[in-house]
Structure formats: C-alpha cells, structure tokens
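Input/output pair, single chain:
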Amino acid sequence: MEDFKERLTHLIGEESVNSFAKKCGLSESLIRNYLKGSTPGLNKLQQIAKATDVSIGWLAAGEEDKTDIIDEIEKIEEKEKHQPQHLVHVPLINVKASAGDGKLVTEEKSTSLLAFHKEYLQKTWFISSSHLFCMEVDGESMAPTLNHGEILICSYDVQHRVPADGVFVIRLEEAVMVKRLQFLPGKTIKVSSDNNIYEPFTIKMDDGVDFDILGKVLLVNGLRRV
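Output:
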C-alpha cells in the first residue's frame, strides 16, 4: 500500500465510511476527502491511528520504522537526558510554513533539532519542549509580523487548539501555510494575512472543508512573541 488513501481504505474494510468516521471522531465528508487523495494533518492522523490501533508511522508513511513527527518528538526527552541540563531541543520540521499562498505538503518529518535555553523557554510559559516544533516561514503574506526565512516556534499541544484567536500553522487541502485565525460564531473561521495585499477568506467547518490546525505560533526566531 503505497499511499495514505490505500492504507485508509484497508483500515475501513467492510465498514461503512459513516461508521468509520464516527469511530475516529471525524466527519464523514472529511474521511471521503481523504479517500479522494487529500492528506490529513498531524492531529487527524493521531485520531485515526488511535481509533484503529495502528502506528502513526505506518498510517502516514506505510513503514513501521519510518520516522514521523510524533516519533521524533517523543525521542527529545530521552536525548535531553544526555545533553547539558540547561538546554532543551526542539525539532525543526522539514516542511516550510508558507506565509504566501501555501506550500504543497511533501514531508512532515524533522531533519534536525534546535537547542534553546531551558530557563528562557520556562520564562516564556512553556512547560515541555516535547510539545514544541519549529518551522521556517516561506513568503511575505504575514509581513511585517513574520518574514521570509524566520524560524517559528510552535506548539501542537491540545491546550492551544481551543477557539482562541491567534497565528497558527494550518493545512488547507494539500497546502501548509501560516495565517492569523479569528474564530467566529457558527463554526466559522476567518483566515487573514497581516500583509494587506492578501485578501482574507472564511472557512465553514460544517462544510467538510479539508482543513486542519497543525500548531499555534508562539515565538519568532526564539525571541519575539506573536
């Protein structure tokens, strides 16, 4: 099974799509989008993997031993035991967060770890580095807040997924981008760029849009809060 669509079809088996979606806590329309070739984000992969008792590595990549984001992040605390105690390490994910019109998702695997002073991160209200990941900005749609080439420190922790306005790394269909989100009544999200030459748009979550919040942007270049 070479792609996610085939592995998902295998997991569904003889079960109805509606029943499978309910088991995973997802909408039927979203599962059908995945069956058509859309790619899920990290938290949706987690939900499906947990509901079907398979590894995220197999679900995302088709290989049990292939490193994915969660596998890499779970190794950080073990690595920190052998590193100077004043440092923590955060994975730099090998997918650029587009601050333009969106980057095609290729790999969401980390390629390196960035070291930060533990005391500094603690002062900026972070509890555990295992909740963090870094991504590089690609584009100028969020300028002057975020500029091309800057490194974002983001949190994928569930506590940052509650409806609270802010800047997020998102996936819309097969594009990863960083945008400012405003949560409106009626399960509607306004998606905006800080560069006003880019028009805002809205997403109705009840419409089955293939959309996912990958993480909340916390710091830029390890220094500046967003």
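The mean pLDDT is 78. Helices lie at 4-12, 17-24, 28-35, 42-52, 56-61, 69-80, 118-123.
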